[in-house]
Amino acid sequence: MTDYRRLRVALLGAGAVGSQVAALLLKHGDELADRAGAALDLVGISVRDIDAPRDVELPRELLTTDPEPLLVGSDIVIELMGGIEPARTSILQAIGAGADIVTANKALLATHGPELFEAADQVGASIYYEAAAAGAIPIIRPLRDSLAGDRVQRIMGIVNGTTNYILDRMDREGSDFADVLADAQALGYAEADPTADVEGYDAAQKAAILASLAFHTAVPLNAVHREGITQIDADMMDAARKAGYVIKLLAVCERLADAEVSPSGETISVRVYPALVPREHPLASVHGANNAVFVQAEAAGDLMFYGAGAGGVQTASAVLGDVVSAARRHIAGGVGVGESTRANLPVVPIGHVTTRYQITLEVDDRSGVLAAVAGLLSDGNVSVATLEQTIVADGDVQTARLVIGTHTAREQDLSDAVASLGESGVVKRVVSVLRVEGD
Question: pTM of this prediction?
Answer without folding.
Answer: 0.92
